[in-house]
Structure to design on (149 residues):
């Protein structure tokens, strides 16, 4: 009887070890936008960015336009890239994930800048990813586990 219990326990451990990589690498669905903020010209908000109005209005930029938008599924530890209109790339990696929060590493490839940012479920990240040039800069917005865009 003891031997049967031991055999079952060992089989359970082997099965758990076989599935451990799958369990550890949970997928995180994200909604990503690249937006451009500008200090020049009259105040203007792209209608596609209405859901971001509260986050964008305190910033020093007066014009906001969406440059791109995509949905992705990120796997913990694997890097995915977002292309900026100027040809640069932003590397986005899920570093840590819990049921209600996720930590991203955001790297602007050409400038070798790195940030780690944690989001609670339902929060949206708005992060400047380029330096300002001619009064404009690009921002990345990310929401993990999006209910709606």
């Amino acid at each position: 009887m003891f031997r049967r219990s031991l055999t079952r326990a060992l089989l359970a451990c082997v099965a758990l070890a076989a599935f451990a990589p799958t369990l550890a690498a949970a997928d995180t669905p994200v909604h990503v936008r690249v937006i451009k903020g500008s200090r020049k010209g009259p105040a203007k908000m792209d209608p596609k960015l209405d859901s971001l109005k509260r986050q964008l209005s305190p910033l020093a930029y007066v014009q906001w336009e969406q440059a791109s938008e995509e949905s992705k599924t990120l796997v913990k530890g694997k890097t995915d890239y977002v292309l900026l209109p100027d040809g640069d790339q932003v590397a986005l990696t899920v570093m840590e994930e819990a049921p209600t929060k996720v930590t991203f590493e955001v790297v602007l490839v050409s400038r070798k800048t790195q940030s780690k940012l944690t989001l609670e479920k339902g929060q949206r990240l708005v992060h400047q990813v380029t330096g300002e040039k001619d009064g404009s800069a690009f921002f990345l917005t990310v929401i993990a586990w999006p209910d709606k865009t």
